[in-house]
Please model this.
Amino acid sequence: MRARLLAALVLLTACSSFGLGERDLSQRFSGRIVDAHRGGFRYADSNTVARFEAARRAGAEMIETDLRLSKDGVVFLFHDGDLAPNTVCSGALASHTAAEIERCTLHGLDRGPDRFEDMLRWDAGRVVIDADLKAREVVVPALELVRRFAAYEWIVFEAGDGLPLYREIRAADSRIAVQVGPERERGAAGLRELLGLGDARLRVIGLRPDTLNAENLSLIHAAGKFASINAWSLTEERIEPAGGLPRTASCDEAFRRGADIAVTNDPEDCVRQRDAIGRR
Model:
């Protein structure tokens, strides 16, 4: 009897995860979205699956991470090009094998960086992954994992500002959702160029304080796309209390100015601010 109940529970969980994974991205982006930068910045386990789970439990609907490629072609969750700032090792991550990287203990932890595959297996469509591609060579291996996990409706690839990396992603796969920002020097003209591509899978436009305005938001929303901004670029985010001031995210300012997605270093406080806006 116990074995039958356990089997039923496993089946129910699998079915639930499948339903979440099959939801369209546009359904996931309804309302104001909290995007947890590395799951939460300045934590020892930042950019790990454990931190992502903490952000999900806090109420974040998106998790931002960074993708880099090892010497032998394994995709890792890691921001910097060099291992030194965050691990006991040094040298470019791209010059080390996966086995070597996993032995590079993260500061404050007892293990090395997680793989992108670990994140996809953990996620299973429960939250949207905002994957910042830190190197051109990671595009194709990352896409192979997206296909393997059928993750097209719960992942967005960040292509930075302008079109070079966007074009590489799109040449490799027409289905993957992408976030691109207008080139800094082109301003409104750059935004119109992006929107003029007519790419339905260009889902998110990354904005800066100087481009987050009513005119640009109107263009973005008219094109059926979503506007994202790093909340800390608007006002400082205090991850720890300082000088008697409480910790605080900057999401209330991002949402007040019309952003659909606020990328935050403090997902817990960002969720609190977002929910307070909803109550008002």
Observations:
- The first helix runs from residue 2 to 21.
- The domain at 25-79+117-279 is CATH 3.20.20.190 (TIM Barrel).
- The radius of gyration is 19 Å.
